[in-house]
Amino acid sequence: MEKQFPEFSAVLFDMDGVIFDTEKVVVACWQEVAKKYGIPHIEDTCRKCLGLNQEATVRIFLDTYGEDFPYAVYKQEMRALFFGPYYEQSLTVKKGGRELLAALKESHIPVALATSTAQASVLKELKDAGIRDYFDQVICGDMVSHSKPHPEIFLTACAALGAKPEKTIVIEDSYNGIRAAYAGGMMPVMVPDMLQPTEEIEKMTIAVCESLLVVKEKMGL
């Protein structure tokens, strides 16, 4: 199979919207909460939070709905839905995900997960989906100081793998994730989920791929 990406020695994955179809599930859960409490424009607010860690997400909600917005209360209700009736749906691995992870493992290419989601949730979801062993390192949002688009989480993942940033491919679906990978001197690849690439984002990527199967092909695996 002909490789179409530049030479690389490591791969970093975002999780929500890249590995799992979780972002759409989270929005569906927030929509239930929003309907119950009359919270307007919740999908637009959720889109602004894509790729951000908990602290940055809270800031967007408070800026949007006011400093007295009871985010923690509503987030708890959202999580009860997510880890309840919606949980099985949230563990759907996106098209080509298992195949790509298996091919990288077979090729002995170091792989890390670098996600803004908190560690406890990440480890549970990876374990329940049966894919934890594909990742040599797992770096989560509560393990770093800065949220994407700051590159800290990706640079931390590279350091954990012993990988050179300039030789590392980062697979992302969010604008903030692409910006973070680009700022860290890596090779961003966008696999769109809830957001389509803008002209700014396209210029930062080495490719925009419709699925992880296409990524696998372009890696020559």
Structural key phrases:
six-stranded parallel sheet, single chain, 6 strands, alpha/beta, 221 residues
**Distance N to C terminus:** 7 Å
Q: State the strand order across the main sheet.
A: 3-2-1-4-5-6
The biggest beta sheet reads: 6 strands, parallel
Calculate the mean pLDDT score and round it. 95
Question: How do the SSEs run, as a string of H and E?
Answer: EHHHHHHEHEHEHEHEH
Would you identify the regions where 5 or more consecutive residues have pLDDT less than 50?
none
| Helix/sheet category | alpha/beta
| Helix percent band | 40-55%
Radius of gyration (CA) equals 17 Å
Supply the number of helical segments: 11
Strand content is 5-15%
How many beta-strand segments? 6
Work out the oligomeric state of the chains in this entry: single chain
Shape: globular
What's the helix and strand layout?
Layout: E1 10-13, H1 22-37, H2 42-48, H3 54-65, H4 71-82, H5 87-90, H6 97-106, E2 111-115, H7 119-129, E3 137-140, H8 152-161, E4 168-172, H9 175-183, E5 187-190, H10 199-204, E6 207-208, H11 212-218
Parallel strand pairs: 1-2, 1-4, 2-3, 4-5, 5-6
How would you portray this structure in words?
- By secondary structure, this protein is α/β, with parallel strands linked by helices.
- The protein has helices at 22-37, 42-48, 54-65, 71-82, 87-90, 97-106, 119-129, 152-161, 175-183, 199-204, 212-218, and strands spanning 10-13, 111-115, 137-140, 168-172, 187-190, 207-208.
- It has a six-stranded parallel β-sheet with strand order 3-2-1-4-5-6, sandwiched between helices.
- β5, α10 and β6 (207-208) form a beta-alpha-beta unit.
- The termini are close together.
- The model has no long low-confidence stretch (mean pLDDT 95).
